[in-house]
TrEMBL record:
Keyword Repeat: yes
One Pfam family here: WD40
WD repeat ranges per the UniProt record: 45-75
Highest taxon listed in the record's lineage: Eukaryota
Name the record gives this protein: Uncharacterized protein
Transmembrane segments: none
Biased composition range(s): Basic and acidic residues: 307-329
Biological process, per Gene Ontology: positive regulation of transcription by RNA polymerase II
Spans annotated as Disordered: 290-333
Presence of keyword Protein biosynthesis: no
Length: 401
């Protein structure tokens, strides 16, 4: 038996005798590697027809809220695998983030999507009423929604337009102004891809950007109105992993620890980092997921080609971009061709399955075209063209306005 298990059994025994605080036992063992490595898949919830981009618990930990490429919101009980509510949202693009508003008995939801539209949904109201409660203020993708603890009236959002916006539902439940600047709290001048608030001090707001930086703001020093210079006002610290200081590596997710002393940050095509924003102005890494030192590679950034359903930079076989760079351009090109080949194979399999279902049920719809994005552009790919032209795929690209 391992030393960790020996200590655990002894500590559990001491807890039963009243010699060990239950909370201390939980803190000391919850994050142990020996326990994490023994985690196994508990259950799978097949509640969506597309990629699931967001999941969040309610405050009591009883229910899960999820959003997907199928543009639907689902509230389910993961313990008995039952779907409580399926909501046909007004979204017309992939849902990227959805949260319960606090203190609303899990009846009110805020969600955002790839076309920048934010919806306020009250599950006790009809669909037509909910579709009128939309905010079209962001231009470009809206990446994340963040609620404020114990505040059922306000929420924050961030997006590709570089803005962090603060909405107050007591003032308005919809906004369709063109080029709206009413609710801008921060203008980062870079795409703001993730946000989180500090649990013990919700006025501290951490923002992850596409320039590899994480910025922490004090919302008490900010306000919505004149948005000029909002990228600097109220900023407490700004930190970047040293090897990413001259690169544009998107922050895909970040969150505070429960005590607010640490910030955990995940980067696209890179590692996960733990920062301590209170030490040395957050200039140094407190912990990285690797001890290997890597030299900066001064190369122009390559455009990321992402096919629909392609998560090669975040899946189990993904590698940090810095490692891929060391392998040279040949590996990059080979990886691209492999991804294209894998996706084409998957498309053929899906087309075959749909054709078989269509023969069994002639009234069903036809197989939809596939899309992928290149830096915000949308390209429609025809499988037949890909086969006919082995030297390259002819496609039509429409840039995002």
């Amino acid at each position: 038996m391992s030393r960790c298990c020996d200590n655990l059994l002894w500590d559990v025994r001491k807890r039963t005798l009243g010699l060990y605080e239950p909370a201390a036992l939980r803190v000391n063992y919850l994050g142990r590697r020996e326990f994490i490595q023994r985690l196994k898949l508990e259950t799978t919830l097949n509640v969506h027809d597309g990629c699931v981009n967001t999941i969040s618990w309610n405050n009591t930990g009883e229910y899960l809220l999820s959003g997907s490429d199928d543009t639907s919101l689902v509230i389910c009980n993961p313990f008995n695998k039952k779907v409580l509510t399926r909501i046909r949202s007004g979204h017309r693009a992939n849902i990227f983030s959805a949260k319960f508003l606090p203190l609303t008995n899990d009846k009110q939801i805020i969600s955002c999507s790839g076309d920048g539209v934010i919806y306020y949904t009250n599950i006790e109201k009809d669909a037509e009423t909910n579709r009128q409660c939309q905010f079209t203020c962001h231009y470009g993708t809206a990446y994340e929604i963040m609620t404020v603890p114990n505040d059922p009236y306000t929420f924050l959002s961030c997006g590709e337009d570089g803005t962090v916006r603060w909405f107050d539902m007591r003032r308005k439940t919809s906004c369709t102004k063109e080029d709206c600047k009413d609710d801008i709290l921060i203008h980062c001048r870079r795409a703001a891809t993730s946000i989180t608030v500090c649990p013990p001090a919700p006025y501290y707001l951490a923002v992850g950007c596409s320039d590899s930086s994480v910025r922490i703001y004090d919302r008490r020093m900010l306000g919505t109105g004149n948005y000029a210079n909002r990228g600097i006002m109220g900023m407490c610290v700004r930190f970047v992993p040293p090897h990413l200081s001259n690169k544009s590596c998107r922050v895909t997710s970040l969150c505070y620890s429960d005590d607010g002393d640490e910030v955990l940050v995940s980067y696209s095509s890179d590692y996960i980092y733990l920062f301590d924003p209170k030490v040395d102005q957050a200039k140094e890494l407190k912990f990285t997921s690797t001890n290997q030192k890597r030299e900066e590679v001064q190369q122009p950034p390559l455009k990321r080609l992402r096919l629909r359903g392609d998560w090669s930079d975040t899946g189990p076989r993904s590698r940090p971009e810095s490692e891929r760079e060391r392998d040279g351009d040949q590996v990059t090109n080979a990886s691209l061709m492999q991804r294209m080949s894998d996706m084409l194979s998957r498309w053929f399999e899906e087309a075959s399955e749909v054709a078989q279902r269509g023969r069994r049920n002639p009234n069903r719809g036809t197989f939809p075209p596939h899309h992928y994005n290149i830096d915000g552009g949308v390209t429609t790919v025809c499988i037949a063209d890909s086969i006919a032209n082995t030297q390259g795929t002819e496609a039509r690209t429409g840039a995002r306005s």
